[in-house]
Amino acid sequence: MSYKGILIGTGGQGKAWCERFLPLNIKDGLLEIVAAVDVNPKVFINAQQFLHLSEDKCYTDINQAMAENAADFCIIVTPPAFHEAAVDSALAHDLHILSEKPIADTLEASLRIVEKVKRAGKKMGVTMSHRFDQDKTTLQQALRSGENGALDYLVCRFTCNMRNFGDWGAAFRHTMTDALMIEGAVHHLDMLANFAGAKCDTLFAQTWNPSWGQYGGDSQGQVMLSFENGVKAFYEGAKTNAIGLNGWTHEYVRAECEKATLIMDSRQIERFPYEGGRIYKREGQGEKVTLLEGRKWMNTLLVEQFISWLDGGETMETEIEANLQSVALIFAAIESSRTGQVIKVQDFLEKTREKITQENP
How far apart (Å, rounded) are the C-alpha atoms in residues 252 and 275? Predict the structure, then answer.
């Protein structure tokens, strides 16, 4: 069955949705975009060029677009601070929702959205795209295969040279308080939790912004995580380095396992099996791991999963309740950096949930 959707946001990341994420799914007959919304009319060109929408199907008013076009769902591609308002409009018009990460710009708003969606009886998924990329999916399968034994710990590096205002795309990323965590680490901490295969137990983080970083808040960070199954992880994230060593989609992850060390670096994966004795090797000298084949990856794949879910299929992995774990990680890291304390992540999440429940009985 083909479902009708409304795209909210056609500039910036919205262009990528128009040009790359939606067309193959439209071609496959899974969906049709019937209208688009943006506060900037200049970026409607993306919806018109790539999704072939007519000018009269492009709106600056979200409620008008939803009122005038019969649809089954909407896709939210706006800065996180505007997600809750878009969700409110969608639910008022009886729409299911697929949203860019994170759920919202605060844990409180994220929990309010979860409760609103639940009360409305609608389905909402979040596009944690990087977890579903080809190299990450290959590494995840290798860790689950049993071939490499038990996983001990993980190291992730994400470093960029985007220190000047505007280098990281939209201006809002350079003015928000916690850009690295909310716009960057939201993907990487989610990836680490997925590789670990368990919820995060404790977390300690330090975030900061060097004097040469043109950001309104913290653009650099380090996070230590312990998961409920005993796996440990370390994350290095940076937006203001002199050079980008492992930027978007080219992240570095090293997985130390009982029977092998696995290294993912710039979309290549190699395996170093345990051979006994005192053996030292350098990266590049391991066994190359063949990447999995697939027709769709990242958001293109997640759109397909969302439509399948709407059609009665399996619940997508990143449905909103499950995705609270990802949101809890980034806001626990922000809290840890501000307080200098180790955060019990699940307690932090549940205490915030109780607070929201009391405020919105």
Answer: 24
**Which pLDDT does position 137 carry in this prediction?**
98
Residue range 131-289, CATH number = 3.30.360.10
Mean pLDDT for the chain overall: 96
Q: Do the strands 260-265 and 252-257 form a parallel or antiparallel pair, or are they unpaired? A: antiparallel
Q: Does domain 3-122 have CATH number 3.30.70.2390?
A: no
Which residues of the chain does CATH 3.40.50.720 include? 3-122
Instruction: Summarize pLDDT for 85-106 with one digit per residue, the tens.
Output: 999 999 999 999 999 999 999 9
